[in-house]
Design goal:
Elements lengths: L7 E7 L2 E5 L5 E4 L2 E11 L4 E9 L10 E13 L2 E11 L15 E4 L6
Length: about 120
Amino acid sequence: MTALFSSSHVHSSQGERTAAEKVPSSFRPSTYLRATSVTWTSWNDDTATGYARISTAFPGELFSAGHRVRMELSCPVDHDGTTYFGRYDIEWLDGPPAAGMDGWEQEGSITVLPGCD
């Protein structure tokens, strides 16, 4: 895997700030979502693919049980001087979750940063 030589990072929400990570085993794709048990199968400047468990928690709640997904990250965009993957394509492997996944309920493309519309 070429992740160490890639200029692209995962955008991980850390409250008011953003963490730039490469091949993380867990990260926060949005404020209320957590990706855990991440296994990356490829990573380069343009795309990264892998498998993970996506779970959610809203204020005052514990994180829900994780739903298995296949994801492809793409659309590298510059954000505050760092290149991040701005779009995630999600495929739910064990069926789509019930409502309440911070906009991630449906399969397809999810934009996590502006510039990938």
